[in-house]
């Protein structure tokens, strides 16, 4: 599925297939495109084409009961002014997707991660014991704004008062006579916002956004997510790793009575064994996922995901190693080179020291 | 470094992290087991969803428990439990 904005993107935009979607990885084929887009995201304000995030509406008398059962976090009191990030798990505790859940007057609206919409939709439909209505909202799409000065763009583009909304607040508003859902969110630790927009209006909103911000693609977004240890399911849910091994506990609410996958997650947690994920830097080149990790000559795990970090100027990645070795400040050997494990965040977001004014 | 030395070094950090997690759960009266908090998860906004009032409580708690005053520190020290561990136990950074 191509981006609804594809006809507005530059001709040399580099696209990539992620799950069921084709999305813009970089908005230029120039060698420094990733670096430039990353710097916009970390230093100014980036507009993000998130049209590869599918929106799924759940309505009906038992919509909240259904959502409460299929989402790993507690959404019982999620009002239409709030949203929250949650994992969706299967019975074995495996991650189906990481979603953003928006409370709505008549149910709940779920936003899939990039390219994971079809799988999420199928999972929801096969778990629909309550007989709720599950609708793909293909009339809507998603734009994101992230960066230390993204709040200024919100002010110039929509309404300054929306910029200072508390984190995970949601407002139904209008832009250019179109009804949009506006939310304070964020994946990168920077000030972040999302706009759920009718497809009929998104082209104009994208074009006007470019007057105040620069576009950043999926590569820059995922790099910035990695730097603040925001889970990226498509890279991290590999090799049958469970929630505990991924380290995504915070996207699961174990105090909730019941949800799909809870028993499996608790079993993994209580066992306390297996592997854990920790960040690393250094080494020569960028190792591929699955590259073995050695400690004192012993095989203790594998590389989960690694990239070249523009911010660090070297390799940044995640390794999954034996639980008793999953700590920062250790030296391991990856592909013949020495790497060092890190504490997160690996890059401190500029937004943490910049107030919204 | 041998694998046993690496395990010992990891255990030292994990012990400090566990102490911090117990302090957070106790002081903020959270309904989760301390070990449910991971060493690297975000603490504010995303993650543990602590707010500015919680930060004030943690300043006091950290000084009482570890004898370290973080009042003038940047927010980055609260970036994760592991990052806090570096502050309350500087030996972890030096080693």
Automatic annotation (TrEMBL), chain A:
Lineage: Bacteria, Bacillati, Actinomycetota, Actinomycetes, Streptosporangiales
UniProt-listed Gene3D superfamilies: Probable tRNA modification gtpase trme, domain 1
GCVT N-terminal domain sequence ranges: 13-256
Protein name (database record): Aminomethyltransferase
InterPro entries in the record: GcvT/YgfZ/DmdA (IPR028896), GcvT/YgfZ_C (IPR029043), GcvT_C (IPR013977), GCVT_N (IPR006222), TrmE/GcvT-like (IPR027266)
Listed SUPFAM superfamilies: Aminomethyltransferase beta-barrel domain (SSF101790), Folate-binding domain (SSF103025)
Pfam family, one: GCV_T
Key word Transferase present: yes
Keywords: Methyltransferase, Transferase
Domain of life assignment: Bacteria
EC number per UniProt: 2.1.2.10
Any one Gene Ontology molecular-function term assigned to this protein's record: methyltransferase activity
Positions of the Aminomethyltransferase C-terminal domain: 275-335
Signal peptide: none
TrEMBL record, chain B:
Pfam family, any one: PP-binding
Protein name listed in UniProt: Acyl carrier protein
InterPro entries with a match to the protein in the record: ACP-like_sf, PP-bd_ACP
SUPFAM superfamilies reported for this sequence: ACP-like (SSF47336)
Domain Carrier span(s) in chain numbering: 14-92
């Amino acid at each position: 599925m191509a981006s609804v904005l594809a006809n507005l993107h530059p001709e040399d935009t580099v696209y990539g297939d992620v799950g069921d979607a084709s999305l813009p990885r970089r908005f230029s084929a120039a060698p420094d495109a990733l670096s430039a887009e990353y710097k916009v995201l970390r230093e100014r304000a980036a507009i993000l084409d998130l049209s590869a995030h599918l929106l799924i509406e759940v309505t009906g008398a038992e919509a909240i009961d259904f959502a409460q059962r299929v989402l790993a976090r507690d959404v019982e009191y999620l009002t239409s002014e709030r949203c929250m990030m949650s994992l969706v798990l299967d019975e074995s505790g495996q991650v189906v997707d990481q979603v953003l859940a928006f409370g709505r007057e008549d149910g709940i609206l779920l936003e899939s991660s990039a390219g994971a919409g079809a799988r999420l939709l199928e999972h929801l439909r096969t778990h629909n014991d309550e007989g709720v209505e599950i609708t793909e909202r293909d009339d809507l799409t998603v734009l994101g704004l992230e960066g230390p000065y993204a709040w200024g763009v919100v002010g110039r583009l929509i309404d300054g008062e929306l910029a200072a909304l508390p984190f995970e607040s949601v407002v139904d508003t209008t832009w250019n006579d179109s009804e949009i859902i506006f939310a304070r969110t964020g994946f990168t630790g920077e000030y972040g916002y999302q706009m759920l927009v009718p497809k009929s209006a998104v082209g104009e909103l994208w074009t006007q956004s470019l007057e105040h911000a620069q576009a950043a693609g999926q590569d820059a977004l995922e790099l910035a997510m990695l730097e603040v240890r925001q889970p990226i399911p498509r890279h991290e849910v590999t090799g049958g790793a469970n929630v505990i091994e991924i380290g995504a506990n915070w996207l699961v609410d174990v105090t909730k009575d019941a949800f799909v996958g809870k028993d499996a997650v608790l079993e993994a947690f209580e066992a306390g064994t297996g592997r854990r994920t920790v960040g690393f830097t250094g080494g020569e080149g960028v190792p591929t996922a699955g590259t073995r990790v050695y400690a004192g000559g012993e095989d203790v795990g594998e590389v989960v995901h690694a990239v070249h970090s523009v911010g660090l100027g070297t390799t940044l990645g995640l390794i999954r190693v034996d639980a008793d070795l999953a700590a920062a400040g250790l030296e391991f050997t990856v592909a013949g080179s020495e790497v060092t494990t890190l504490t997160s965040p690996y890059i401190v977001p500029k937004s943490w020291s910049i107030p919204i004014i | 470094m041998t694998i046993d030395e690496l395990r010992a070094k990891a255990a030292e950090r994990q012990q400090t992290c566990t102490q911090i997690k117990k302090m957070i759960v106790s002081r903020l009266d959270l309904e989760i087991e301390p070990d449910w908090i991971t060493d690297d998860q975000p603490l504010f906004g995303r993650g543990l969803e602590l707010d500015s009032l919680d930060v004030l409580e943690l300043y006091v708690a950290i000084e009482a428990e570890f004898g370290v005053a973080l009042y003038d520190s940047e927010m980055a020290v609260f970036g994760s439990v592991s990052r806090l561990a570096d502050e309350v136990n500087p030996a972890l950074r030096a080693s």
